[in-house]
Amino acid sequence: MSSKAEQTAASLGWGHRFINAAMRTVYFGRIPVLDVGADPAARNESADRSKTFVRDESSSDSTTRSRPRLIISSHRNGAIDGHQVLAAFPRAQFLISIQLIRSWFLRLFIAGIPVVRPKDVERYNLDPASVTSPVEAGTAHLRRGGDLGIFPEASSEWGHRPQHYKSGAARIACTLIEEGIDLEVIPVGLFYSTPDRFRSRAEVVRGKSITIPDRNGQDRSVWEDQVASAMGSALDEVSVNCPDEETFERIQANALDVARSTSGGAATFARAFLDLQRESTTAAADAAPAAASPAVTVLRWVGLALMWLFAPVLGAAAFAGSRADGRNTVTFFRLLGGFAAVMVWVPVLIVAAFFWPLVIGIGIVSAVCGWLLLGLRRFRL
Description:
alpha/beta, Glycerol-3-phosphate (1)-acyltransferase, 17 helices, 7 strands, Plipid/glycerol_acylTrfase, transmembrane, membrane, glycerol-3-phosphate O-acyltransferase activity, Phospholipid/glycerol acyltransferase domain-containing protein
């Protein structure tokens, strides 16, 4: 069994947890976590109150927990997906591409276990003998009692269904189970109402822990295939998995209508999406979504105008987002640009506050009001 020191070393550092939490909260707001694997009685009681059962991860992630957890997540919105998983598993580490941590700037808010692909060895002139395989790095982390996040799709895509799942997570799980380690495997689905828009909805669905098939004397490859199949099926249950693009767009719009009209509770968009996805052959799922109200556009412009004090930050974020190469990377680019601008603009505001405290104070209050206005349930994207 791992010691407390080992478990602490296996966790994501508090600095990165704080920065990631701040960035995702400013951009999306609070990230609700829908736990569909929670105790049925607690979930039913919550449903009776028209609220979503949300697990408190602060207690389950304490350093007294010794069981390692392998978190397999859908991958829909680029590098920002890791921020959302951290909302449910704040101490998790991730297997990440080495290109994301080669820059000092990116290392300020991105951390993880580097994955070095064969092409990275050549690109960055690395010593092949010093490169650890992703499976070895992942199993070593889990042996120390940590939480490990993996995106089995390997790359992200904003589509109507998951991409092909890679087998790395299954290999890690099989290796640890053979060693007698009590491993918990948890599927996680990520949902975005509008992935590339500021203050839109981002929600996390935590699925029921996966039951790993026994080996029963089978060849390792056969067993790994069965484990990979079990993981894929569990991940499909809590992820966007529509038959075609048209169905996806319709369910996406209808789920947003439900979220806007449902008072109280959390993760209403994700819950509505999954319900409509399961009922995609019924009239409820096939119904045309309500037309967008002009009030939404007007209120968004008003909200952004109220944030005039931070116009340089918003402008830098907008410019960076325009350089993204796909819809699923826009938010990440905006966060990069906005974070860089904050590092310059906030010190300027601090100095300005000594000379014009009233103006700066009014600007901050105005910005907070604008941010809250953009998050109003009935008008939020």
